[in-house]
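Cont'd.
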Amino acid sequence: MTHDFWAMGGYAAYVWPCIGFALATLAWNIWSANRHYTAALQRARRALAMAASEAA
Amino acid sequence: MWTWFYRLASPPYVFGVTRALYPWLLAAAALLIGYGLIAGLGFAPPDYQQGDAFRIIYVHAPSAWLSLFGYTLMAVAGAIALVWRIKMGHAVAAAAAPIGASFTVVALLTGSLWGRPMWGTYWAWDPRLTSELILLFLYFGVMSLRPAFEDPARGDRAAALLALVGVVNVPIIHFSVEWWNSLHQGATVTKFAKPSMPPSMLLPLLSMFFGFMFFYAAVLCKRLRGEVLNRERLATWVKEAIDTHDA
């Protein structure tokens, strides 16, 4: 049963890479969006700090 | 209705709403994709012609759908920004582009891996495949055009125009299997009156479709928050939002 599942009727070499690539892309999207947001947050903090120091 | 629409043009409102929506959208996506994968890979019966290779549909079709949806969203957001001069439209378009491009790559790669056992080749210059590849190049064009200008406003406008011109490719991709002779199969899911699948195959596929949609919306929320911060970093509300929510 387990072997049949992983063998995918002889198409394992095509099915599992597709699933793996799709899941990797989902993970990349979350990582990339978090990285994009964190970078933007840091830039905003720096800009606000610079504006505050210039005002002072 | 219009009050709600106008609220979406407000960066502080969008920044707050996307923050609240993100975890719920991601949780819904995880549940639906989890169910879709388990039911689709483990319990759906093999196809009578394609055997177990048909299971690639559970990631290929939702990715291909999102590649078209993402581009259309980008073009609509760009059009709204150009016509009504709503800056949030450009932010949505900028946030949507890399997500859509990534799902276009998934659609092309999984389609190629599906094509090898079914058609005997990884790639053919077939109307559906070629127009999908053009879509990927359009995504790359929009993504690289925006930062190519020194003035960000000009970059936004140029990217919105390219997105609008390129949206003509979306119906071409969708109808290519009807307009021309194609190796690619016709519609499977859109024919709700007479679907080509039994419920045991269709339900996991619908679950994957909705799961991918929720996932797209979640990632769009996160990227949009970053875009809003990049564009509004000196606004007073940004300082308040950072101090209250993200400190």
